[in-house]
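Hi all, a correction to my earlier message: I attached the wrong file for Glyoxalase. Here's the right sequence:
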Amino acid sequence: MTKINTKHPAGTFCWAELCAKDWQAAKQFYTQLFDWGFDDQPIGEDMYYTMLQKQGDDIAAMYQLPASMSEMPTHWLLYIAVDDVDQSTELAKSLGATVLAGPHDVMTAGRMVMLQEPGGATFALWQAGEHIGAKRVQELNLPYWFELVSKDMQKSRDFYCQLFGWQFEVKPMEGMDYTLFTIDEQPIAGMLEMTNEWPDDIPPHWMPYFAVADCDQAVAKATQLNGAICVPATDIPDVGRFSVITDPQGAVFSILKSTIDELT
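and the right structure:
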């Protein structure tokens, strides 16, 4: 039975937003890949904020990058819930973060700020007003896991743990250390280190994982829709089967068939 989410606890991921160079093409790719519906909401002259939906419930969003931001690549921006954006922004600044935009109100929906943490990754904070963020969680075809790749794991780890009160656990995984972030022993996100093998043009970043019923089928569908497969479908012991995909405009995301949770 579907349970509609009514609140995201502080320190948990609450929203995923695609900033796209070609909003219409991006909408076509993702709605076909994940069987999403959509609601285009006007936000200006020939500008829309598209609510991506599962069975009519908002679960993520996308919008067209304005001409003034044309040099920015298409990318996913992840939001973390907080009780007080302004207070959290001041704490983030004291911990070495840079404010990229805000804090500001988004009409009556809520209040947000976009930050760059000391390790270089960009993310946003959301203080809910009338819009809590994703109305569904822990279901298929929704953002399911959130992963940071950092060039300085200790610097990033210290920042997030001090900002959100996250705890962490380092787990050895196939020749590398994987950091698991938790709140009250519940997994929140993960982190891995960008080694010298990573291309120089890939910056530190947060990446969303979308839960799927069948990883291999989703990879085949993404390929048919002109997505590029960065990491083919691969098993992670005791976790599931995943793949890393680049959409036709260059935004990177992952999919995961979980063996931990029974999702519908």
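Sorry for the mix-up. The helical segments are 23-34, 85-94, 153-164, 215-224.
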